[in-house]
Amino acid sequence: MVSGEESSGCWGAVLPRGAGRGAAVARLLALDEQGELSTAHVRLMASALDVSERTVWNWLSVARREGRTGPRPRPRFRVTREIRDLLVMWGGNVSAVHRELAARAAEDPSSGPVPSLSVLHRAVVRDLSVGERAGLRTGEAGRRRHDVFGKRPPTYRNACWEGDHKRIPVRVEVEGRAVCPWVTWFIDVASKVIVGVAVTGHEPGRDAVLAALRTPDQPCQALRAVRWSAWAGAGGPWQGTSCPRLCRGLWAVSLSR
């Protein structure tokens, strides 16, 4: 049974007003490049998006002129390097950072306007991840609780490894000093086999990463990741490496050697 509204050809909007603009404009531009764009296409898009045909034509004009298919981005306050440093100094306390910015602005009016506390709060939530905010409040242990690791979908052996550092909560004697050793290791994502490990008596450095990578067979191929094998045993050359919990700076320096 067809209702009177449907039989008259009066259809309501398929998408909420303003939604789908980017995909619609991109599709219309593709039709335009092929020389197939017609008023019927524009009318159909306007009906689906609950806007006028003139609005769709204006969207196309803006896309050709400015190269954007969506609305103009609204300017907003962003967390700068200076604010990140203040967040570190104040342990993630946004209110304290705001007071610090206000005090600096009072001493030096040329430093620019100070955002409101609510604007600063929203910027911190948008620009910093949950792990970063937890790390500012409670340190490295808090940040690591929000890291995503061991969640990569398994494919085959040596397709990807994950690296990590771990401080062992024991005391051992190293050259007459009691220290807590660190373990740097790599696991194969598919099999969860430990393919490389190194234990050091100091905080992880380049030497620990290189030593852990040299543990598997064929270290030169593994280090440069130039070849891989779907049927190699655990510890052979691998295709890629994921280091969500490994110090990125150490990883970059290690591969540069």
UniProtKB/TrEMBL annotation:
UniProt-listed Gene3D superfamilies: Ribonuclease H-like superfamily/Ribonuclease H (3.30.420.10)
Source organism, top-level taxon: Bacteria
Name of the featured protein: Transposase
